[in-house]
Amino acid sequence: DNDKFALKPTTLQVMSGEFAVVVGRIGSGKSSLLSAICGEMPMTGGQGCVYGRIGYVSQKPWIMNTTLRENILCGLPFDEDFYWRVIEACALADDISLFPAKDLSEIGHKGINLSGGQKVRLALARAVYSRADIFILDDLLAAVDAYVERQLIDRVLIGNGMLAGKTRILVTHAEHVVPFADRIITLDDGHV
């Protein structure tokens, strides 16, 4: 039954500046909800309104065949101070120090020279650098170890992190993140 994976009619509101955590079993519709918020899933009724620019980090990040820096800037002007703050917050500084040309190193087709965790952190850095208003983060903590996860939570997601005051919607299986949320969205078989 193809309807099993469709989102059911729902009302959902996330306020500006909130940290919302989306939880649910595998296949419950968490990623579909994020796709709907981003306007990537056709609506069969009702309406959806998103106010502001979206920074999106998917489970399988899109990586360009260019330098690490260009993957983060993604065509935006280079603001050196902000750029290096983003690198540090997204736990990329140590990785960059190991590359022969540092952040100007070519990272290969689809990021072939990067691990899964590095790709996710690169995509997160791109989103943070974009200075978007709303951040849609699809299970990015699953690709990193506990130490890096803690850094991302503290330096990016909560408190005075890089996204302080921004709207953040995070899909996660990391239950220890839930207490930091302003709003918890539970999905079950496409129902909120």
From TrEMBL:
Compartments where found: Membrane
Residues in the signal sequence:
none
UniProtKB keywords: ATP-binding, Hydrolase, Membrane, Nucleotide-binding, Transmembrane, Transmembrane helix, Transport
Annotated membrane topology is: Multi-pass membrane protein
Q: Where is the ABC transporter domain?
A: 1-192
Q: Does the keyword Transmembrane helix apply?
A: yes
According to the UniProt entry, its GO molecular function terms are:
ATP binding; ATP hydrolysis activity; ATPase-coupled transmembrane transporter activity
Keyword hit for Lyase: no
Any one cellular component term from GO for this entry? membrane
Protein name, entry field: p-loop containing nucleoside triphosphate hydrolase protein
